[in-house]
Amino acid sequence: MNAIVALCHFCELHGPRTLFCTEVLHSPLPQGASSGDISGQNEQAEEEEGGIQMSSRIRSHSPAEGASADSSSPGPKKSDMCEGCRSLAGGHPGFVSHDKETSIKYVSHQHPNHPQLFSIVRQACVRSLSCEVCPGREGPIFFGDEQHGFVFSHTFFIKDSLARGFQRWYSIITIMMDRIYLINSWPFLLGKIRGIIDELQGKALKVFEAEQYGCPQRAQRMNTAFTPFLHQRNGNAARSLTSLTNDENLWACLHTSFAWLLKACGSRLTEKLLEGAPTEDTLVQMEKLADLKEESEGWDGSEEGEKPSSQPDVVEGQELSKCSPETSLMPDCSSWNVAHRRLSVFRSLRHMRQVLGASAFRMLAWHVLMGNQVIWKARDMDLVQSAFDVLRTMLPVGCVRIIPYSDQYEEAYRCNFLGLSPHVQIPSHILSSEFAVLVEVRAATRSSLYPTLFDEEQSLSKYEFVVTSSSPVAADRVGPTILNKIEAALTNQNLSVDVVDQCLVCLKEEWMNKVKVLFKFTKVDSRPKEDTQKLLSILGAAEEDNVKLLKFWMTGLSKTYKSHLMSTVRSPTSSESRN
C-alpha cells in the first residue's frame, strides 16, 4: 500500500511534532540512505519474520543530529527539539524491512527525507493534533484533500505523572493519495491501530501507577499551587515515549507494527475485473443455493422421520447422488467411489463423440438441446454420472434436472437426465415417444470394438453404447444452429478441450440473449405471432429446431430476470414511456 504511517506528539514547548514514521519504497533507499550505506555486519544480523527481513539502516547523516545534518534536510534543528520531540537518538540508523515477496522496502525514521513528503506529513501532523479532532479529543477521524493527501487519524492520550493534567497527547496517522482505498480500509485500520494504542497505553499506565505510588505528584502540586507552572518544570518534564512506557525497544516494535500494517492493508484489498452483469447461469445457481439453504433450515426444525424419501432426490441445475442401501453399509463406500471415478470415463464432449460415433452423438446432442428426456441404462453409476456431467455443459444451468441413478422410471417433467439400472422396465409409450432418447450401455462382445481406446487405464473399452430413439435425426437435417457450431468446434483438432469449453460458454450466452429478447417480446409485451416471426428471422432462429430450442431454454431463465421484467412492466414510469 502506497502510504505513510506516522506517530505524532503534541509537545508543550514546541507544539505538534512527528516522532516516528514508516514509508513504503518501491525503489532504492531515499536521499542520504543509499544501498552502499548498509553495513555488512547489519546484513548478517537480519531477522526474518512473516516473509519480511528487518535490519537497521545506516545513514550518512540524520536530520535530528543538528550540526551534522545537511543544510537541505527538511527536519527540525536540534535547538527546536526536546526529549519529548525526539524518537531516535542522534546517529541512530533507523530501520528497514525488506519484503522478499514483492521486493518492497519499509523504511522507518523520525521524518521523511524527501522535502515534499516531509511537508505532507508535517501538515497532517499539525491538523491531527489541532483542528481535525473528533469529539472528546480521543478517537478516529478522516480528513484531507487531493493536493496534500487524505489522512486517517487516531488521537489518544498517554499517562505521564510529570505532564500537565497527568497525560500527553499523541496521534497515529495514515496518509495516502487514494481516498476511496483509505475509506474502504477504515475498519481494518481502526482495529489494528487501536490495538497498537492499547498496548502503548497499557505500558504507560504501569509506569504511571508505579511513579504515583512512589511519589504522588498531585499532593506535591497542591502544595505549590501558587507557583507558576512553567517555572516548576525542569528538564525532566519533557519525557520521551520510551521513558513513559519503560520500553527501550519501543521504536523497533513500532517499526514492525507499522510495516506489517502497510503490508497487510495493501494485501487485503485487491482489484477485480468486472466483465458485466452476472450471467443467467450465475443467477440460477445463486437462486438454487438460496432455496437449498431455506430447505435445510426448514428440515432442521422438523423431525427426520417427516422427510419424504419415496422419490429420488432432484435439484434443478444440480444432482444429489446416493449409494444404494447395500453399498451404504460399507465403510469405504465414498473412498471406493472416488478411486473408481479416477478412471475418468467420459472426459469431454469430444471424447464422448469419439466413443459414440458422429451420428449417434449428433442424435443424442439434438435431444439434449431440445429438452427431451435422455435416459441412460448402465450398471456403472460413475459412468452415467460422467456422461451427465459432460452433456449438461451444452445446456443452461436452469434447464438441467438430473436424477443420476434410480431403481424406477421417473417422468420427464421431473428430470431431463435420468440414469437407470439395467433391470428397470421403461414404459412402452416412452420407448415409442419422439421426445425421449435411450442410451443402453452393454458389455462389449470383443475388445476390438474400440481398438483406439483399448487400454488398461481406459474403462470404456469393455462397453458397447447403443443409442435409440423413435425420432431419429436425419443426416441431411439442418438441425439447430448451435448444434452445428458445437460439432464444428469438436471436429476442429486445432482447438484444445479448454478452448472448446469457452466456445460452449460463448454459444450459450449468445442464445440465452436471444431467449431473453423472445421472452420479453412474447410473454411481457404480448406481441402478435406475425411480429414474433419477424423477430425470429432477425435473430436468425426462424427454423423449427431453433424455435423449439428457444422455447425450451426459456424455462431456464432465472426468477430474478423474470421478476425484474414484470416489475418494470407494472411500474407507471415504464407504461408512460411506452405510450
Automatic annotation (TrEMBL):
Assembly information from the UniProt record: Interacts (via C-terminus) with FNIP1 or FNIP2 (via C-terminus). Component of the lysosomal folliculin complex (LFC), composed of FLCN, FNIP1 (or FNIP2), RagA/RRAGA or RagB/RRAGB GDP-bound, RagC/RRAGC or RagD/RRAGD GTP-bound, and Ragulator. Interaction with FNIP1 or FNIP2 mediates indirect interaction with the PRKAA1, PRKAB1 and PRKAG1 subunits of 5'-AMP-activated protein kinase (AMPK). Interacts with HSP90AA1 in the presence of FNIP1. Interacts with HSP70, STUB1, CDC37, AHSA1, CCT2, STIP1, PTGES3 and PPP5C.
Pfam families tied to this protein: Folliculin, Folliculin_C
GO molecular function: GTPase activator activity
Keyword Nucleotide-binding assigned: no
Domain UDENN FLCN/SMCR8-type intervals: 86-558
InterPro entries cross-referenced by the UniProt entry: FLCN/SMCR8_DENN, FLCN_DENN_C_sf, Folliculin, Folliculin/SMCR8_longin, Folliculin_DENN
Biological processes annotated in GO: intracellular signal transduction; negative regulation of signal transduction; negative regulation of transcription by RNA polymerase II; positive regulation of TORC1 signaling; positive regulation of transforming growth factor beta receptor signaling pathway
Organism: Centropus unirufus
Protein name: Folliculin
